From TrEMBL:
Domain Peptidase C51: 66-150
Gene3D superfamilies: endopeptidase domain like (from Nostoc punctiforme)
Short name of one Pfam family: CHAP
Descriptive protein name: CHAP domain-containing protein
Length: 181
């Protein structure tokens, strides 16, 4: 009888250690991703026309052309550098497949958004998500800290660079997790 108790205890300990290791790997991946996207804060367009050496590097990573909007291309470039599978695209709306979406405004979240998850902003005039960036800190209050490309000080979706921003959580339409799912 006691041999079974020890064996079951060993199995439980083993199972927990695998779960902890898995969680740790994902947390390390989140930190690595945060270092990558944070290192780009301060990148600016050359002429204000979705151009410049680094902006064009982002666009190239998403198979997009010079001059295209690049918020999703920035996200794609960062995720590629971190080795995280995702849709390779410069179209913000494509970054939110159902299997990866953990939060949709007005519905209960399936998981708490974390550092490195993607947020999407919905634009009524477009009828879709028109801007995407990274959640840097979801926090406990009404404010979320983000890092996003093709924005500006006024938080426009057609900006001039990569910025660290504070946004109201109620502005966030969707959140996608490509690290844990």
């Amino acid at each position: 009888m006691s041999i079974y108790r020890y064996f079951n205890g060993f199995l439980l300990l083993f199972a927990l250690s695998i779960g902890v290791a898995y969680g740790t790997d994902n947390q390390l991946k989140r930190k690595e991703l945060a270092q990558i996207y944070s290192s780009q804060v301060g990148v600016r367009e050359a002429t204000g026309n979705n151009d410049g050496l680094q902006v064009e590097t982002f666009l190239h990573a998403a198979n997009a052309k010079r001059g295209q909007s690049w918020c999703a291309a920035f996200v794609s470039w960062c995720l590629q550098l971190a080795g995280i599978k995702h849709p390779i695209t410069a179209w913000a709306a494509a970054m939110f497949p159902a299997r990866n979406t953990i939060y949709t405004r007005g519905r209960p979240p399936t998981a708490t958004p974390q550092q490195g998850d993607l947020f999407g902003l919905y634009y009524n005039n477009l009828g879709r998500i028109g801007h995407v960036g990274f959640i840097h800190d979801w926090g406990n209050g009404n404010i979320v800290v983000t890092v996003e490309g093709n924005t500006n000080e006024a938080a426009s979706r057609e900006g001039d660079g990569v910025y660290k921003k504070k946004r109201l959580k109620r502005q966030i339409y969707k959140v996608a997790n490509f690290i844990d799912l």
